[in-house]
Structure formats: C-alpha cells, structure tokens
Amino acid sequence: MDTIDWSDFEKVQLCAGTITAVDDFPEARRPAWKLTIDFGDAIGTRRSSAQITDLYNKDNLVGQQVMAVINFPKKQIGPFMSECLVTGMVREDGAVVLVAPLERVPDGSRLA
C-alpha cells in the first residue's frame, strides 16, 4: 500500500452536503441517480452521478447528508456533467452504502 504525506491528504476537500434533488439517469451504463447537493453558501450547489440505486430511492435520499470530494475536476458521464464525487463503501453484494456524518453538521463542513 502506498502512503501519502499529510500535505497530500490536506489537498482532498471532503465536505458534507445535503441532497436537495434526485433525478433519473436512464442514459447511465449502470443504474444511477443524478444528485443535486447543497454544500452551503461558501461552496454552493453541485451535481453528481451516483450508482446507489440498490439501497436508495428518490424519497429516502432527499434531505440526507453525504460526504463528497468537491475539488476533483468536473467529469463528463454520458450527457451529464458530474461536479463532485459522492463517497460510499461497497458491500460484499456490490451495493454501495453512502458515507455520511452520524450527526447533522453544517453543509460545507470539511472532514477534520
């Protein structure tokens, strides 16, 4: 396993944000949702594609906080431009479990 320096870790901006909208993404190669995430006034709203349809539906995602990397470059995913990377853990069955704070924190809070 490669190790990184503290300065490398500091470059990754992992922030909490609240999902405000979930849209279908029928063009995705693997089932996915288009998420709109509010990261607060300082960062603003970002969009992301997330392959999390196994465990999450539109109704239980809106209002949920997630952790996302907000300083990756934008990435074109089919007809959709992803502006951040929502984080998750892959279970043995392949389903992705979202990473989120255990308690509500202000949107835009950075992982400490």
Structure description:
- It is globular, with a radius of gyration of 14 Å.
- The chain has helices at residues 6-11, 58-61, and strands at residues 14-24, 33-38, 45-50, 65-69, 75-77, 80-82, 85-86, 88-90, 96-98.
- The protein is mainly beta.
- The strands form 3 sheets. Strands 3-2-1-4-7 form a 5-stranded antiparallel beta sheet.
- The longest helix has 6 residues, at 6-11.
- The chain has a single domain, classed as Beta Barrel (OB fold (Dihydrolipoamide Acetyltransferase, E2P)), CATH 2.40.50.140.
Defining traits:
112 residues, mainly beta, OB fold (Dihydrolipoamide Acetyltransferase, E2P), two-stranded antiparallel sheet, 2 helices, 38% strand
How do the strands and helices of this protein lay out in sequence?
Layout: H1 6-11, E1 14-24, E2 33-38, E3 45-50, H2 58-61, E4 65-69, E5 75-77, E6 80-82, E7 85-86, E8 88-90, E9 96-98
Helix-strand pattern:
HEEEHEEEEEE
CATH topology: OB fold (Dihydrolipoamide Acetyltransferase, E2P)
What CATH architecture label applies? Beta Barrel
Shape: globular
Summed up, what is this model?
The protein contains two helices and nine strands. With 112 residues, the chain is mostly beta strands. The strands form three sheets. Strands 3-2-1-4-7 form a five-stranded antiparallel sheet. Strands 5-6 form a two-stranded antiparallel sheet.
